[in-house]
Prior knowledge:
Blueprint: E1 2-8, H1 12-28, E2 32-40, E3 43-51, H2 60-95, H3 101-119, H4 124-143, E4 148-150, H5 151-158, H6 160-196, E5 203-208, E6 214-218, H7 233-238, H8 243-254, E7 258-262, H9 273-280, E8 284-286
Amino acid sequence: MQVVSIGTARHADQILERLNYEFKFLQEEGINIDVQQTNRGNLTFLGCKLVRGGRTRFSAEDSITLLKHFIANALSDVIVNDWESALIRKIVRDDYSHFPKDERDGILEFIQKNLDGRVAGENDLFHRVNRKGRVLSRLIEYLNRHSELVLEGFVAFRLKDYVEELHESVSRAVDEYLLEKEYKEFIRLLRHFVDAQEPKFDEIHAVVVPGGWFKLSDREGRPVAREYLEDLVTQVRDADGDCEGLLISSLITLAPLSVVLHLPPGSDDSMGTETIKKIFGDRVKICGGCERCGVRGDARDLPT
């Protein structure tokens, strides 16, 4: 007796392969499944039915329940691991058709790299398992009431919240993509600006003190003269603690041939280190420890 029939308009071979993988576990328990493939219009149906005669410790009713669960597990894997990418491509194509094609391609590449991490904002595995769990639950609920399921229709009408979550994820990804693009363009312009300037110093040392402020000095250890940073005085008074931005602005203003950063112990990206590296490139060196690093204090090295 046929138990469940799965219809799909595409990738029937892929679904059949995943079903057969699941059915191997049932066969180990003596539950044998026969799969018959038929076509109706543009749909391919995979009819899954129990084969009598196998020796199993499960009753016929329990065997049917297990079969539905394993089918649901296979289909939830297909939806989350395989179809999700196609769904996202459709969302980008439909919702962002006003973007140039190369922009849409860039968005898709960004999403593929960051779907579960940056887009969802948390751990990749957690979000993938969470999505699959919700899809699996809906599939089991449906199969307990129906013997036939058309996968495309099920996703469109029974997984509306799942598809909506993908829409929201794509929207967040697009926002991040555009911000990252603007940031890269901003860095490019700053690099061009620094390269076009006449260097005011051969080498500048930036000693970052605990609390975020910094001291600027030349190669010989002399503090940077007031006149070089006069334009930053107002920024210091109005910055409301934006020491990172002030340090970057100061270094851009000075445009040294070489920048040596002296950072507090244990700091990874203190005071925009990565941004400074991107702007100044191989001009930047990180000090591993010296006498200047040992000189710490709360004094602000900018003019007052």
